[in-house]
Amino acid sequence: MFKSILNKTDTLDLYFDTGGTELILTHDAIKQNTSLLTDGKNKSYEGEDYEELEDHSTLSVGNQKWDSIRVLPVTLGPKNTDGHFGWNLFKN
Asked: Which residues pair with 60 in a beta bridge?
């Protein structure tokens, strides 16, 4: 598990999924552990929706930083995590 920083403010516990892509966060993590829904952001987000969030984010894991990351919500994830990130962050 990796301690990660989303949008320079939100601390998340993420795991690296070698078969996954993008940044995947659980609905609970989005609602409880991020500021993705504050200040009028992502107005079209529905609590059980699986659509990409409107606003793109930044993600930092250790010394690595990515900009313009897509965030995709899911209902379930591994126990004790907020979601995962996939191999596509390391392409190029």
From this structure: 5, 65
Residue span of the structural domain in which 53 resides:
2-90
pLDDT tens for the chain, 92 residues: list them: 999 999 999 999 999 999 888 899 999 999 999 999 988 788 878 777 778 888 889 999 999 999 999 999 999 888 899 999 998 888 77
Tokens (6 digits) for 34: 């991020």
Residue 48 φ/ψ, nearest 5 degrees = -120, 20
Q: What is the CATH number of the domain that holds 20?
A: 2.40.70.10
Q: What is the pTM of this model?
A: 0.89
State the Cα–Cα distance between residues 15 and 45, nearest whole angstrom: 24
Number of domains in the chain: 1
Question: How far is it, in rounded angstroms, from Cα 63 to Cα 50?
Answer: 30
